[in-house]
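To whoever picks this up:

The parser on our side crashed when reading a file containing two proteins. I've narrowed it down to the boundary between the first structure block and the second sequence. Both blocks are reproduced below exactly, byte for byte. First block:
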Amino acid sequence: MLNRLRNLITPPTAPARGAAGVTRSPRNVPPAIEQRAALLAGKHITYTLKRSNKRRSIGLRIDDRGLTVSMPLRASESWLRSVLEDKAHWVVEKLDGWCARKPEVPRWVEGETLRFMGEPLTLRVRPSLFAADTQQRGRELFVFVADATDVAAIERDVMRWYRQQAAQLFPQRVAHYAALMNVNPREVKLSSAKTQWGSCTARGTVRLNEQLMRLPLRVIDYVVVHELAHLREMNHSTAFWLVVKSACPDYLSRRRELKAVAL
């Protein structure tokens, strides 16, 4: 009864309406993120569409997860189609490039080929009741585990071995090039980052990805020089690349070689 009296005195608030008199409803707001597909340059491409009221233009990004399209919250479908059609060949080319760069995923089994400093290394798995360190013998890497089918244990031991090799090599290469470049890094740390081969802070901490141990020494050295150059130029300006070139004259070819590999 009390609620009826209140309604007679104060009518219920009417739902909000837009400028055209259309009731605003959550159903009128497009989803912030959705998966879509489109035919681009003759290929069916799936992509992630992200909407944001902070954007003023449509942007395309391609990485190891594929194509991501970011657009203003209420951008029109015709604008989206126009951008995708205009960039169709670029999208297909970049996606094909990422597919070619996908790293080989080891199977962690007897006879598998691994990469160590750019050279093939054959994995040898040996059952052992006693703990033993992983050992390199020529072009073979011997891992000793209780169960030869335990791929998790094999992977753990191999990756521990890679880290041990990196912990020895990286400080040596940093010291060598630091002297040539007249810089003084504070410390060298190993990194397991998923998207960066290396980094350098203004305080002089150089981080190098342990996965670099798969690559040839000339590529490892390029990353070392690149990071040390940031101790002279904390940017990627022309001056920065001149510093890189002073210690690594053929850095462009090494850089291309690195870009052909995915983490």
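<<boundary where parser fails>>
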Amino acid sequence: MNPLHRLTHGNARWAVDKGVEAYRDGGVRGLVVKTVSFVEKRRVRAVAFSPLGSTAGTYRGAVVMLADVDPPQCWHYRVQQKRQACAARGIPLVVVLPHSSTEVLSQLQLASMLIIYRQPMSMLLKEVLAEARRLRIPVVYEADDIVYRQDLVAANPNLGTLPADLRAAVIAGAADYAAALAACDGVISSTRPLADDMARGVSGASAVIENGIDAQMWSIARGIDIDCEAGQITRSDGQDVVIGYGSGSRAHDADLAVAAPALVRILAEFPQVSLRLFGPVAPPPVLARFADRITRVPILPQGEFLWEFAHVDIALAPLLDVPFNHYKSQVKYAEAGLVRLPLVASPTVYATYVDDGRTGFIAEGDEQWYQVLRRLVTDPDLRRGVGRAARADIARWDVDGAIADQFEAMLATFNVRVAN
């Protein structure tokens, strides 16, 4: 097979992989939207962020990151936040979209490190890895979900609502992520449990760079605060309470079902309570009789989502206690805290982050979910107090501070050194 044919075949496989991912996350509509978006993105091959001048903190050569703009929430947390963290410390960063090996190879020539973010193995990636090896550039694989573990993906109950052929494709695709991970020197992830699991597949080190709160999110939060003070966003002082749950893909139906028995009791007991679902998650069948009190909000850009999310009174983060979920991050807690919402969450993942009763609530079992929700529904002062405490707590993930520190620590871990 000649090189041109190999590259064409690799790009076709990449397109198929992305099509499967789009359909998984958004169905036929998601596939159409992604196809249109891809045609537009072909006009902009690479997103390069200029080096920030020769300061004491500038690194020799840019950090090159191979990443795609989809899913949008992943691009925001794992790519755009790195841009801000690097800008805060004078570290040059170049982000290249995985559509052309020519641009990736060109950017590698003077790079000090290559980060491969959530990419499956492909002909393009094989070519990029070979060039990085020739140049002796450290290559680290980054993921924020356990997409590379075929056993855990297959056992994830949330895939049960997908069509059988799509579910099989998602499970099979995990092998391509695993192959890409195994070809790298080390790993980066959003949590320590995930970093430790990923590290089993490589010979090198691991590093954690958490999902953070960036300047854009702080700005949106300040705007929401102003709207609340001006009365443009109002929260209930009585029983007219809105409970909200957000999801970025279709694969969260089984998670929401964890809270469903408690929600049935709350909606039956309090006629003025309603449920607002953000994203493509489906309401559990047991809630069908409350359909007139359930509203749906489509997937929105980050800023618009946060503004809409700020209109609810209580946020939910139920998670099934299954291995696939043990590696998730604190994003739902961070977003709820940013807009001063009290979060009710499962102990899976969230017990690590939430100070139960002060910055949020941990609920396990139908009765505890019901009791916590009932308490919040009937006590507006409690909702406000916990929301304020959560806002103060999530500041520990400020991108210019802690997340930038973690990025610098990651560079040190992989011996990417400051120029003399």
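After patching the parser it read the second block fine. The domain at 3-211+399-413 is CATH 3.40.50 (Rossmann fold). The longest helix spans residues 3-41.
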